[in-house]
């Protein structure tokens, strides 16, 4: 038993430590098997907070996570352990929960050491022991676990040592831990840091940290901001702003219902002062959907055919397309003759050899002619253009059903929105200002030492044209803006071609 990770030798927690180094847990997390990852995601969809409690299928999730755990998927191990602790979908078995956490500990997962600390403080499957709990949390924080950093950092930010040993005065190290947790976009870290930033000297940064905490999905950060803008948290705080307070309060309610939400584009619907608040229709869902991360996807089922947008002879009704092969076979006719069959015909210059002729042929679109109708010569055709022929392409047929679109696994969970692929491909270095207003997704080269930390699906920001892109150094990440490539994902608030409206947030007209 002494060789089990739960009983491993540990350095005693020292609340008055003088040295502590910030590390990031993403850098230590093992790679995941692709099949196991799919099973893990399916389990998440079955237990999503978007579902009513009675609709969550923990038994099916447990089966999927068991399969994934057998392939050493550490996230599935920890989720499955939580099911065994609560007895959801499985028979309650705290010993099995501890064993699963130990498996993840053997793989070097920082989160597993943090969870083992929680088991020791609560006596879950092990003997209750606060000393070992703090020792495990210290090790987890040193390994980079952001939750452990936030928890211990807050404990060390007291003005004095509590005689009961619950808080200590070591603000230098406590602040380092909170800053490290915040740099990893941990909601608890942001909330604890914002609360303990010295006021009034750092009031502006405190609001920024809380605001980021809301982006990270932290309910308490949203509550703090709602209270701040009601004018009730700190003397000398921001001027009372009931409209902002109402929005933060609404978001706090939604985060309470779904802690999995992440809101990287919060600035679109709720920017910090002095920015003017955009219009809001009062629906909580509108705020959340406008701030969620987005994923650009080809949604062919809601896009009309380009031919349906043409007028006159070139118009093809939406839902119809020309066949791959014309009915009855290929047919070519000369100018100044009558169409022998009704259908769409394409004008083409025979044997084009000049760049101008090649470009002209490429620009032509099919045109409808009824049987017996004379072909009309295009206005820009002259005798010098060359010999013109009309090629029969057939009559429109129903468009074949598009391949069923399978949404990203996060869409059914309600934490991601899919949008049509932008009509233009815009990219920009982080050193430049944004060339267009909208959502931007940032990434660094995979070879960058902090790529695993930075390249996340939530690494997005709503940036207005001419404004700078976010600087990771403001959050403590040692990444130069020049190393970041930002990709434009459109504004995601325009009416779609089908007429279905997406999230629309517009500015007040003064």
UniProtKB/TrEMBL annotation:
Residues 491-510 are annotated as: Disordered. InterPro entries: DUF6396, Sel1-like, Sel1_AlgK, TPR-like_helical_dom_sf. Residues 238-283 form the DUF6396 domain. It holds the Pfam family Sel1. It comes from the Bacteria. Gene3D superfamilies: Tetratricopeptide repeat domain. This is DUF6396 domain-containing protein. It comes from Herbaspirillum aquaticum.
